[in-house]
Design a protein that fits this description.
By secondary structure, the chain is mostly beta strands. It folds into 2 domains: 4-160, no CATH class; 195-328, no CATH class. It is built from 6 helices and 20 strands. 11% of the residues lie in helices and 35% in strands. The strands form 6 sheets. It has a 5-stranded antiparallel sheet, covered by helices on one side. It has a 4-stranded antiparallel sheet with strand order 13-14-15-16. It starts with 8 loop residues before the first helix and ends in a 10-residue tail after the last strand. The protein has helices at 9-13, 36-45, 162-166, 195-198, 202-211, 258-261, and strands spanning 27-28, 49-51, 54-56, 66-71, 79-85, 95-102, 108-115, 119-125, 128-133, 142-144, 215-218, 221-223, 234-241, 250-256, 266-273, 279-286, 288-295, 301-306, 312-317, 322-328.
Length: 338
């Protein structure tokens, strides 16, 4: 177990310079009060290990990442923009960034991380600043828009996307952990909500929604698609149940509406309750989620993601994330989307 007493916030953040605010299209925000544990977890969530109180990048090099505490969604609370430069480690242009948000339990959640230099646009999606990756500053140029719980799925410029990049050519129909992935659903229900989800007290339901980045928009309605003024986008707690037998419940949210989800019409999130009682997002994706009889790490059931078309991603918990393990059609044959 790490001895937190040997690592201070001063030693970890003391060498970190602030990013110049002239490049930012959002409000600089004072640094929130951080415990030693939260400071360490911030860097680890961004993809750094911490040795002797100093960050080490994914290539094993000592780093001096720069941090700005900024408000990206106008709620008065600080998000973190972390940037690092190491041409020997990072792809074009030899730089890396991560954006993170602090959760209700004080931990930090990564919203996006890519090799490149990010700019910030005054334009917003779902209340969050759009992110700009220009061609000279990234091998994956384009605009990143907030997608409800993060800035969209990872791409080849994300160091956390290895499973996504190999998913189009699955190595084996046996999946990631050596045991076969089943296409048989673990359970099914005929209504939109299980009875436990439908009867969950409002305060407990609100805590789950908030952990998933779903916002209250009045009249008892919640959604992550706050830009939809029609009122047709609405999130629902579909399930709350202990799906891996560890004594703590998991929850599934379905956020319906075509305004943000296009022809898919729904986005889904899976969360688990931690030992502290807080909720942590395990997966957020467009499409319908079905839990399957086969299981991955920590006894979590595999997931089929239902999307338009005839080729579906199958995800398995690897101890860190629900990574794509295969893409199959309804007959269990490997396929390629599009």
């Amino acid at each position: 177990m790490r001895d937190w007493r040997k690592i201070s916030i001063a030693s970890l953040l003391g060498a970190v310079a602030c990013i110049g605010s002239s490049t930012l299209a959002q409000t600089a925000t004072p640094r929130p009060a951080l415990t030693n544990e939260q400071a360490i977890q911030l860097f680890e969530e961004a993809g750094f290990s911490v040795t002797s109180g100093r960050p080490v990048n994914r290539c094993g090099g000592a780093s001096n990442p720069r941090i700005a505490f900024v408000d990206l969604n106008g709620d008065g609370r600080a998000e973190v923009h972390l940037a690092d430069v190491d041409p020997r480690c990072y792809r074009k242009p030899g730089a890396y960034f991560a954006i993170m948000a602090q959760q209700p339990d004080g931990s930090w959640k990564r919203l996006i991380a890519e090799d490149g230099i990010v700019g910030f646009d005054a334009a917003r999606t779902s209340g969050w600043n759009n992110l700009l990756l220009a061609d000279p500053d990234s091998a994956c140029p384009g605009v990143r828009r907030f997608a409800g719980t993060d800035y969209g799925p990872p791409n080849r410029c994300s160091p956390f996307a290895a499973s996504e990049l190999t998913a189009a050519s699955p190595p084996s129909p046996r999946g990631m952990a050596g045991t076969p992935i089943s296409q048989t659903k673990l359970f099914d229900w005929t209504e939109d909500q299980t009875s436990d989800a439908r009867n969950l007290p409002a305060l407990k339901r609100a805590a789950i929604f908030q952990a998933a980045g779903v916002q209250a928009v009045g009249g008892g309605r919640w959604t992550s698609c706050t830009d939809d003024a029609s009122g047709r986008s609405e999130a629902q707690l579909a399930m709350i149940e202990d799906i891996n037998g560890d004594g703590r419940p998991e929850a599934m949210i379905r956020d319906s509406g075509s305004y943000c989800n296009g022809s898919v019409g729904v986005a889904s999130s899976v969360l688990t309750q931690t030992s502290t009682g807080a909720w942590s997002v395990m997966l957020s994706t467009q499409g319908f989620i079905n839990f399957l009889e086969s299981r991955g790490a920590d006894n979590y059931p595999d997931i089929e993601v239902g999307l338009p078309g005839f080729c579906f991603p199958y995800r398995r918990w690897d101890g860190t994330e629900y990574a794509i393990a295969a893409r199959w059609d309804r007959e269990g044959k490997p396929c390629h989307p599009g």
